[in-house]
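Two quick folds needed for the group meeting slides. Do the first one here.
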Amino acid sequence: MSVLETLTAPETMAPTLTGDELRRMNAYWRACNYLCAGMLYLRANPLLREPLKVEHIKNRLLGHWGSDPGQSFTWVHLNRLIKKYDLNLIYVSGPGHGAPATLSNSYMEGVYSEVYPDKSCDEAGMQKFFKQFSFPGGIGSHCTPETPGSIHEGGELGYSLSHGFGAAFDNPDLIVTVVVGDGEAETGPLATSWHANKFLNPIHDGAVLPVLHLNGYKIANPTILARITPEELDQLFKGYGWKPYVVEGDDPTLMHERMATVLEQCVLEIRAIQRQARETGSFERPRWPMVILRTPKGWTGPKEVDGHKVEGFWRAHQIPILDPQTSPKHLAQLEAWMRSYKPEELFDEEGTLRTELQEMAPQGARRITANPHANGGLLRKPLEMPEFEDYAVPVEKPGDFEVSSTDVLGHFLRDVMRKNMTNFRVFGPDETASNKLTAIYEASKKTWMAKELPEDLDGSELSVDGRVMEMLSEHTLEGWFEGYVLTGRHGFFSSYEAFVHIIDSMFNQHAKWLEKSKLELRWRAPISSINLLITSLVWRQDHNGFTHQDPGFLDVVTNKSPEVTRIYLPPDANCLLSVADHCLRSTNYVNVIVADKAPHLQYLDMDAAVKHCTKGIGIWGWASNDDRLEPDVVMACAGDIPTSESLAAVAILRERIPELKIRFVNVVDLFRLMPESEHPHGLSEREFDSLFTKDKPVIFNFHAYASLIHKLTYKRTNHDNFHVRGYKEKGNINTPLELAILNQVDRFNLAIDVIDRVPSLQMKGAHTKEWLKDQIIESVNYAHENGIDKPEIRNWKWPL
């Protein structure tokens, strides 16, 4: 008999559950559903010990009911299997607006009261538990960081499955059950993440058990997967490489039996796959099991309200009974619905869950919401780090030779991986080699469980044991990375600059999670930082053209909390090593590192680089000639390519106008520009003025959009004299210098800017200015004629 036939004919099967198990599991589920409804509606009378009155109802009804019963139903059955097989299991709620399901189970497990003692397991605690939900001064309506057991808020849909896989990597004993909402399943990130099963190694990874929850509707529309034929649905997931099991129905008694049978089968299959692989040391790519759970939206809720269908329809998505405050009919219907769960049978006189139901939950750290993997900082071990100074580029004279900074970084990351082969991974969307990080492959190859061809042996660097995660989906990779660090491990992500925007909103959501966790939740232990290397930069995308030129991710980052975001623009390889070492050791940040992959001039020896990066900003004395006096102009820069163009401009000016006093300031830590009152890395007014003066012109050559520097410095004393140059959305297939000229970040335009801004040069600099204009014309013409920059540009070195 096929699986589908088995599931639709449970009367032919030997029962999985005893009669007492079925009774108690259904009672436990009723209690969950009662608590879910109470969170949506009640601020008093939590156990309906008196008739329901308007004053017991919240003034604003906020939250979501639709997915709660299906999620709680799944949870009850997971509890049974955790106890039976001593499973190490966490739960990811894809439809995070179904948070009442997670919260109710946490409360019933006793975990919520342990974390928040004022929400005690009695009537008074239950009243507070209900009132706080979606309430000012309380908690949000999703699986926020305040939710014990959560590693995924689920506010922005699409990332649950990738988070689940990230949690499973290198956790061989862990099962991650991911409930995927059928609305969520329509998002691009979720649709792509079904392919993550091609990257899961049954020997050293855990397992992911997806439960696709088909309740049929989104906010006000049907869902696609619920409206295709069963055959098409089955073929879809088999095509993804899964082994789908279907559990369908609305009769609780039958559904409990079906779900118990299917989930137990899934657990046994997972264990069999892992046992075979671990005992033999080899495996064919397995077809991991998954569950398709089809239940009514708002199951067990009101069938109809005011003559309109609710249960099994989109009207069950949020608040099913809309107006109990002013409608006596709605109030009566709400009371009847909540009493249908028979709370007096579920909770004792004190308001505590009855003992026989408490016994349904696992104990201690096996409780889903107490599992330490969902508070990954508890399990986090610091990386064993090589000495980054050992990878130093020898620099005897600043700006005398070129090196690819990311190539140097790759050798450092290789040895970080060698020392941390069970808790460190590198992520990149088919760009690790392109970004000059290929040395990493000497430590570990790319993870690959799918088919291999003979030609793959010739440089493809594929391995079932690989620790470099490459898939052409920034969403999936970022989701893996987040799930990996949220469960206590470490990682590093590299991306082309223009396309890191694909994960803008994922960064936003993770930064919000970190902010809450770090500032408000002492019980959440610090986790490893998200480390993002932004490379293949705008200024060297002259070969790919306009579409690949967008440095705006930095603007996105600066909008988030200063407590959790950092931006570094190391100007050379030694600075990049220092910054990377710092970031890999840090916790509870998103660290953004901007460094190009192409060969560039090297300026600082390792000792100077460490000092410069520790300060985050500083004067380069060897590039300045103000002799510790007040300068005529400050040349400032942030970013490796803007730094080289600024230095070239300084060299021109010092040669042609030697009396001009120039101070050269380089910025590594972008947030040093902010006031200390606005950012913990910000400079004091005195420190800032000592670098940039109070009244002299500042020509600031910036890697990204100029407006960002103005945003960071607008409160500074000398802001009116800041003249910032950055990317202006001018570009095509250009030479490097031509692209810089188009955006006026080149050496010639910078030098002209100095002449225009320094009053004493208005007359004496006229001839130099004309020469600079000629150089611009000649350089562009040469590029258009020859397709490359002039030799003196390509081969330029710091001459002083």
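Then this one, please, same format:
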Amino acid sequence: MDAKAMRQAAKQGMAALAQKQYDEAIALLSPLVAKTTQPTIQARLQKALAKAYMGQGNTDQALTYCQQLQQHSDAAVQKWAKSAIAHLQKIPNSPASSPETGFKPIANASPAPMVSTGFKPLTPSPSPASPNNTKTQSPTSPTVSTPTVSTPTAISDPSLASASPTVSTPLHSTSADADADADASVTSTSPSAPTPSAPSAPTNVSTPSTPPSPTPKSPLPTLHSLPWTNADRAKKWSAIRPKATIATWITIVLVHGGTAIALWSLAVFFLKTGMAMGNPIRDIVQRMVPFERWYFLEAYPNRIAGMIVLGLLILSPFLLDLVIHFAHHPKPLSLKDLSRHSPEAQKLLEQSSKKHKHPIPKIRLLTTQTPLIFSYGLRPRLSRIVVSEGLLRQLNDDEMATLFGAELSHIRHWNLGLMTLVTISTQISYGFYQLFATWADGRKNGFLQWLGAMFAAIAYGMFWLVRYPGLWLSRTRFRHSDRMATNLTGNPNGLSRALLKLAIATATDIRRQGKTIPVLEQFETLMPVGYRSALTIGSTFPVQWQTGTEEQPDRSLLHSTILDWDYRNPHRDLLSINNTHPPLGDRLYTLAQYARRWTLPPELDLPSASRLSPSPSLKLQIAPFLGLPFGAAIAVILWIVGLMAEQFNWYAFRWLEFDSDSVFWGMLALGFSCGTIIRINTFFPDIKPSKKEERELTELLTDPHPLPVDAQTIQLEGKLLGRRGTSNWLNQDLILQTQTGLIRLHSTSVLGNVGHLIFDALRLQPLKGRTVVVTGWLRRGTTPWIDIDTIKPQRGKPIHCGHPMWSTLLACLAALWGAYIIS
């Protein structure tokens, strides 16, 4: 971790402490203590960690840091430490906030009275603890008694010395509220307890004239507070093999062949579109500067596109190296450094290299707290594995090894090159999206800013378009890698924990950052868990799991959770068509079946998937797309009528044969229009004040039956998250943070995305980070989301979105276009 990363981690840690997000503060600040030799900075870090552990109720860890502060040369620090120790020694350990879990129950808790310090003490409510909860303390957890180094790259003293003045600045500037809140956690638990003085915290903290509306802290459990059973792994096992049927082989050929053909077709489309748009410019330039035209581009666009795709395929590993190098500045990670975090992963890489006679993949380390791991390359000799410090810090040895096993399965399978090609193809458009958005944010002229935002929106649309050819292959290969990683390690339970922890850590990172950082979106197709599916599952399932365990400590099965839909809904695969990954619950259920096959107790004991009957709403769900084949069928019938008219001299109908192309495309548009109109009333049920549901996400997302068309009218209050600036003028990154989880928001104007560029972006931008009340339609799919009807800030008028009007307008435009083509 370099000086810049240390400053960033310190700033984020102090900000998390100020917001009473003690788990985040501990995770960010713990590694810094062992990396600095500056006594002043080290004391501030130790003091912040002591306060964070006090807020958690973890008195043992708080005492450890206070005792270290007692040895400090500063008398004020010693005085504070002595007062804190005297107070902590009077506090008995509570079952509700035991050091083993660090979790404070949220269910059935009555509101605590506000004391003079402004801190609300949590009244402990003892509940029976699972006997397996004592295993939840992971070796890499930040709550161990001695702070450990979470990165294998050590920092030399000169680097620290040069960074120390800069590091001290954020510690001062961001710790004012943190010190006040954390000191309150010491004093408010017992009115008679002595009040430790905090010399480094200012007594008066200035606040902005228009502060953002406060949002209650989301009571999301942390990784180490969940009731992990740490289920066993197999000692001896036989490999799990897929069913080798003809349908399986046909599917494999279609997936890989279809992806390659789709990429080539897109290249042809972009080449022809570029030539058509560039012809006027070329003609103007040719008049000024005569040059010979490249007729081979116009004569052989298909061949040129094929050569471009082939060239990208060959160069894709090296191009991705450049993208990652300039955007994220990775560092090499040796096997020796990897072994400090996961000796099993090191052995797995060495054994695989020796067995299959290929070099060990190069490992790159990203200095970010966001949990990341993915691989890319062309073949095993040209492959790389990228990991982040956040992943190394939050997973155990065996869990990390299963993820490396999954990446090895990608490397050994030849689809790695195809997925790398898809990824580098998306990076081109995504890079232009970031470039235009950054340029537009720096413009003061309104027109120039709008122009940059428009080009950024076009580039973002191209990113999504290029992404589509690889979605089917992406979903298929993750099912394959789950099975291969299980066979390599004999540890399906470890992989279950790893995937679920990745989802939870990703959701926590988005909540902490207040937005989706670009790297999660850029490399989503390569990562084990997609951030879109992790967003709601990773924030909601821990609450359901923790609450269910507290209410029924001896319950072995996980009933009525958000995962039920993922593995029980009969249409889950069809509804995953826009997703990069299979439903996470489906993958976890499959891994539980692998564990049962080897007579192992599963980590997540999900109930057996009872077969649900197909939903009658499916036809309505796909009505606009069903209209396409109906329109095509009518066009074929009309073409046959035209043939008959030619034979029987029915002159009034002969045009149906000669204009069959126009009739075909026109009927397709009319079919889509009719299907959209048929679905629209069911898709957007009336929202009445008496029917606005004010339930929690944990209750709304447990039913495995509904489809997106089966919308629930809801009203939720929470904090609006998302990117700021022109990079989010399409409102593509809108998230609502509620008390029990995060959920994606979908905002559509009356004019669709064109309306976002003209109107909505200017209205929703000031609401980021504010508390809002969202009214709309909750839709259940692989990724749950809310179609917004109104979004109301605490101050100001509600903002109305126009999704129903846009759907109606789109249907009318399709009908008019179809009629125009036919006429």
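Slide caption for protein two: Residues 3-205 form one domain.
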